[in-house]
Amino acid sequence: MSLSEAFDILVIDDGSPDGTGLKIKELQTEFAEKLHIVERSGKLGLGTAYIHGFKWALERGYAFIYEMDADFSHNPEDLVRLFKACKEGGFDVAIGSRYIKGVNVVNWPIGRVLMSYFAGVYVRFITRMEIMDPTGGFICYRREVLQTIPLDKITFIGYAFQIEMKFNAYLYKFSITEVPIIFTDRTKGVSKMSTKIFREAVFGVIMMKVWSWFKSFKR
Question: What family does this belong to (predicted)?
């Protein structure tokens, strides 16, 4: 696959048993300047992996920083569209949205589609953010956004992490747009969704809203 823009890749590997680390190191011989890996011991949570990656990119001066799934649920070709939304469109945050134009999800059972969609309805009702896909994990941030959000104070490490990051960007009055994508569920591996993670997201949204009443969001 050849993209019209160049992107560097950082993989955060929390001791994956599927040989991810070994494969990345093998590919680094061919893509030494573009492909990077950080290996951490144990499962430390989705949110901490992203924050580690954000800090890594900020330290190295990247102007646009992305998060995405590495299992091709997110189409790499859409990286260019997110980049252009920020670079040419002038937005601070561009979200690859499954729901901005109907429901664009492939290979999910109807129960999970409904849970994901109505989670967005719930988040919009509580937070008042006008974001159709607040739980989505395919995002481009301008570096100024990640420099402003206090990353060390992000509370959640599961799927509520995605909501918390967007809510912070919203509260700091960064401009946010959604770019329609088609999300294709993985064909191998299993979802990390659990009752605990779902509960964190449900109650976490209320907690975030309450906390926002007692914080200052000036930049």
Answer: Belongs to the glycosyltransferase 2 family.
Total count of residues recorded for the chain: 219
The Cα-based distances of 204 to 115, 125, 141 in angstroms read 16, 14, 23
The DSSP element (H or E) to which 26 belongs, if any, is helix 20-28
CA–CA dist 139, 171 (Å, integer): 17
Q: Give this prediction's pTM.
A: 0.90
One-letter amino acid identity for 2?
S
DSSP 8-class letter at 173: T
Tokens 């109505």 correspond to what residue? Answer: 118
Task: Give me Rg for the CA atoms of the chain.
Answer: 17
3-state helix, strand, coil in the chain (%, to 5): 40, 15, 45
- What is the rounded distance in angstroms from the CA atom of residue 13 to the CA atom of residue 83? 25
- Reported as a single tens digit per residue, the pLDDT across 104-139 is 888 888 888 888 888 899 999 999 999 999 999 999
Query: Which residue type occupies 111?
Result: G
107 φ/ψ angles, rounded to the nearest 5 degrees: 75, 15
The tokens describing 169, both together, are 């960007």
Nearest to 164 by CA among 47, 57, 45, 65: 47
**CATH code that applies to domain 9-212:** 3.90.550.10
Question: How many angstroms separate the CA atoms of 5 and 185, rounded?
Answer: 25
Contact assessment for residue 190 and residue 119, using Cβ atoms and an 8 Å cutoff: no
